[in-house]
Amino acid sequence: MNGIAYEKSDSGNRGRDVLLEVRELGIRFGGLKAVDNVSFRINRGEIVGIIGPNGAGKSTTFNMLAGALTPTSGKVVYEGREIQGKSPWEICKMGISRTFQKIKVFGDMTVLENAMVGALLHTSRVPAAREKAMEVLEQLGLHKVSGFKAKNLTLADRKKLELARALCNDPKLLLIDEMMCGLTQAETKDIMDLLIRLNKQGITMIVVEHIMAVIMKLSERLIVLDHGELIAEGTPEEVGRNEKVIKAYLGGHYAAS
Amino acid sequence: MQSIISGILIGGIYGLVSMGLSLIFGVMRIVNFAHGELVMLAMYGTFFGVTLLSMDPFLTIVLTAPLLFLIGVAIQKYFVQSLIGPNDTPQLLLTVGISLLLQNIVLILFTADHRSLFTDYAIVYYNVGGISINKAQLYAFIVALLCSAAMSLFLTRTDMGKALRATVNDLEMAELVGIDTKKIYMIAFGIGAMLAGIGGSALMSYYPANPTVGHQFLVIAFVSVVMAGMGNALGAFISGMIIGVIQQLTATYIAVDMQNVAIFVLFILLLVFRPNGIFSRKAGARI
Amino acid sequence: MKHRNAIFLAVLLVLFLMLPWFTSNYILGVVIRIFMFAALALAWNIIGGFGGQLAFGNASFFGIGAYAAAIGFSTYSISPWIGMLIGGVLAVILSLIIGYPSFRLRGIYFSLCTFAFSLILEVLARHYISFTGGDMGISVPLLGNAPAQFQFESGVPFYYIGLLMVILYVAVCRWIQVSKFGYYLSALRNDQEAAEALGIPSPRIKMYAFMINAFLTALVGTFYVQYTLFIDPQTAFGMNMSVQILLVAIAGGVGHLWGPVVGAFTLVTLGEITNYYLGASIPGIDLIVYAIFLIIIVKALPNGMVGLFQQANRLFSRG
């Protein structure tokens, strides 16, 4: 079991409860290995960020966790059960919800209905789902637009809606895929505060993000990918000083700090 | 053996018609439900060319080919163009509407009577090594073969042909490179219709025409296109011949009226297992 | 339901209940046809409208329903009422067979796959002559008035059965719309990937919708054969039937509850009027009108007639 990059910084695993474990995960498309031998652990209650330059394999790894892709090697173990290759809906039922980088709200349905679809995961009664949906929408400040069709919302509100919808699933683990792109500073801060608040309420999070300022502030721990491999892991400070990481981002020329 | 030869001969026509559909489908992702009707129109064109103008059925192609080309361009320009977009439903429905329209206009103008040409071609048979070959079928096949060869050359050697293939492969790239996609669409539809038309005209020499004759060609053309993989025009021609053979073999060894069932079943199997065609190596799900 | 709408519907219902008393048999016949196509389109709407999967081979189920009743009665002396249920069950089984390969495909390939099955059935129906009467079809023996055998002397009972059928189908659609199943279908239609990530098992949900559609469509098939007392492969499984069902649903407005009903009324009436004035001199003109109508709808009215009404409503309530 490859442990080099992994053991370098074990700061995240001081006897905490492991929620998700990724073991030697890999996937190849045709002849290309998009992700190779990636291993890490996520503890209950953490916010962990996955970063890396373009094409590093972040989204691919993300999609393998969410069930949208089936890995060709390795395992994903959630609460002790192997979930790699399971369908997205099975994974959702187990307590893992996700958002999409390209916002996928149900455009022709109202905001409330969107959230209700999420809430219907754990109940068959539509009125109960409606109640829960309304609660979550209020929490996120979307109750005022609950009657509007989702496609008519602003970008920021649509992103919040996607978040709300996923929250209605009552997830234990939330996977956030590049949520901040296209938002203003204020909107970004808004969502960041929201995510921190939700995390404090007990939801474990894995966040894939491109915007450095956001991910550094948001994450307790970072996982860095490059060319499909895990090259570093640790707290934001540790990772920020890591030579390999700097090299990956600056491409060979790196400024000595 | 007889069946195989017959199959190849008629398969040539299927192949030509399928080539036309392949072009339309490949370039524009349009499911041209009216494709069979284009064949039908050409058949009637040839019928009247022979009966009213005393032309040789194969010579009528000189008339029907450009006519069908123009019809194709017109359909594309006035009906289809505005509907091109991510959703392929409106186009499908539109071509269904056009198909209905053409069928019934012809029905009204020319009645449902089957129209046949009684020419020398249809009656003469050659005997080659114990196999009987109908003159009309043979000539029609030769026409189809020549046309598809010409088409192949066109697609690979000429600028326009290359532009067409580029658009099939990657629309955005083609636009970036400066290809006028609207014009390409019109030409693609026009040529697609023209090929269907030539097939129809050639077919008329031995097959009766009626307003609904187009249906069978529609399905066969689709099966060929799927079998060959999207945009593979030459492959569509070959697939057409394969289907012709399958059809004739089924007719001979199972039952004449079941001849199309094998094709339909093949269609379903292809859609499920090889939606990218039998000539490609991918076996992925078609989205 | 809003108060105003409820009253409107109640009034309509009363009018329809009383219709047989003050119209001719001809009009009654037209309305029966409207009911049939409305029911067919309502069934289709469940998979096509709510579910967003444009199934193009519903004639398969219609034909099964028709032949089950016809063969059941003429060959096995089973009452068509039972035959109707048998047809329904067979249709559901068939939908599983058709759905399994078809639902793996998206968009146009799905439509073509379902279509291919209806073509196969048509050929099979033509071929197995001893069973289905082949191209000559089956003429159900006329019994006159025999309610137990689903035959009536006059059109009036058929009218009421048809009316009941439409009301029931609308009720089923409404019930689906407000249920968890309906929400899931709608989510699938909007964005399948997102729906799946929210826990919706897309293959299963699509299949349920397809099965319901199959069952309901088959019942109309039985109704048809009992009303016209004749069925043949082309009418049962032919492309025309599939196209007409699609046409009615789209003309009315795909995905809207009342779309199919509005569509049926519009198209059948349009066809009848056309035939009345021009039918004698130009046979088949009604089909041309349908074709033109379809083209207009596709180009100008993507939301069908219901969409048109909604737009008009908005215009008027603003001005």
Describe this structure in words.
The complex is a heterotrimer of chains A (about 260), B (about 290) and C (about 325). Chain A contains ten helices and ten strands. Chain A has helices spanning about 5-10, 60-65, 90-95, 110-120, 125-140, 155-165, 185-200, 210-220, 235-240, 245-250; strands at about 20-30, 30-45, 45-50, 75-80, 80, 95-100, 175, 205-210, 220-225, 230-235. A six-stranded mixed beta sheet of chain A has the order 6-7-8-3-9-10, with helices on both faces. A four-stranded antiparallel beta sheet of chain A has the order 2-1-4-5, covered by helices on one side. In chain A, strand 4 (about 75-80) and strand 5 form a beta hairpin. The longest helix of chain A has 16 residues, at about 185-200. Chain A is globular. Chain C has helices at about 5-20, 25-50, 60-75, 80-100, 105-125, 130, 155-175, 180-190, 190-195, 200-230, 235, 240-250, 260-280, 285-300, 305-319; strands spanning about 140, 230. In chain C, strands 1-2 form a two-stranded antiparallel ribbon. Chain C is globular. The interface of B and C includes residues 97, 219, 264 and 265 of B.
Q: What number of structural domains do the residues of chain A give? A: 2
Mean pLDDT of chain A: 86
Order of helices and strands of chain A: HEEEHEEHEHHHEHEHEEHH
**What can be said about the biggest beta sheet of chain A?**
6 strands, mixed
| Weakly predicted, low-confidence segments of chain A | 1-14, 252-257
Radius of gyration of chain C, rounded?
20 Å
Structural class of chain C: mainly alpha
The CATH class of the largest domain in chain A is identified as Alpha Beta
Q: Given the structure, what is the number of helices of chain C? A: 15
Overall 3D form of chain C = globular
CATH H level, superfamily name of the largest domain in chain A: P-loop containing nucleotide triphosphate hydrolases
